[in-house]
Amino acid sequence: MSPLILSIESSCDDTSAAVLRGDRILSNVIASQKVHEQYGGVVPELASRAHQQNIVPVVDAALHGAGVDRREVDAVAFTRGPGLLGSLMVGVSFAKGFAQSLGVPLVEVNHLQAHVLSHFIKESDESAVPQFPFICLLVSGGHTQILLLRSHFDMEVLGQTIDDAAGEAIDKAAKIMDLGYPGGPVIDRLAKEGNADAFHFATPNIPGLDYSFSGLKTSFLYFLRDRLAEDPDFIEKNKADLCASIQRCIVGFLVKKLERAVKETGVRQVAIAGGVSANSLLRGEVERLGRRRHLQVFIPKMQFCTDNAAMVGIAGYFKFLQGDFADISLPPYAREN
Ligand code: KG4
Ligand code: ZN
Q1: The total number of structural domains that make up the chain
Q2: Residues 265-281 pLDDT 10s
């Protein structure tokens, strides 16, 4: 029988635990932290405190939801990094203690690899998974990369942002408009009622398959500053149009480079992953790209876009199969190098 894997994710502000039997998901419980909303961003100290409060009930709910007893667990997978050190520490310590008390192996997982590998989570025997090689656009709050996957853990970076991540740019645009945190889902929702042609923001001109979002953020800021000088209610009156216009610019840029990567590599399978892959315009545009270029496209289910432990479990499962276990002394890491 395939191994039963308990997985833990605590890299930022979501405390999550999942149970997988091999590549089949049995449960995936996510406790999102509301405490950060009033501060307009994640407060690291508060995040680790909330993880400490959430971790035991979340793991308990994941085991319960999967209908398994903790003594049946064959391995514990955990996110080792990158992320907020204080947040990671809670999940890593919990995973170590849990595995040690059961006498089962530990598997360390890289958060970004987990986002990409979320496409291999199976909810049924019919679940379609990508074949190698495939291209994955990884877009989250901290990363924006175009990856070429030759196997589960062979991920070549074809292009990436040279400054801000796409999610960061969206969140900053939302913050400038005072839309709350995280701004991505709010912009997505408001944009549906707006006109994307109302305002024009130039697509950054960056060579190759790389991205850059910091100039866009600055031009958005200056644009609004000038308009607000003429009309202090400018943002309030044009909120939906502003959201639709900035979203179209960012998504257009993301898809333009993704299409270029497809053309340059000749790879016929394309996936998107990470928090920003929850964006409805991006999902639609990637579907359209697939139809236009006759590609097979993989769009993750909503629950697997933003941070979740199921993706850690699937990455942990593939490492388990390779016998790639972690030592109990391994510390978390905030950055990759
Ligand atoms: O992957 P994730 O949950 O955390 C990181 O690893 O960073 O990504 C979070 C990012 C945030 O920037 C959030 O605003 C963005 O994903 N996001 C969205 C949407 N949902 C989440 N951005 C645009 N549209 C959405 N619907
Ligand atoms: Zn993430």
Answers
A1: 2
A2: 999 999 999 999 999 99
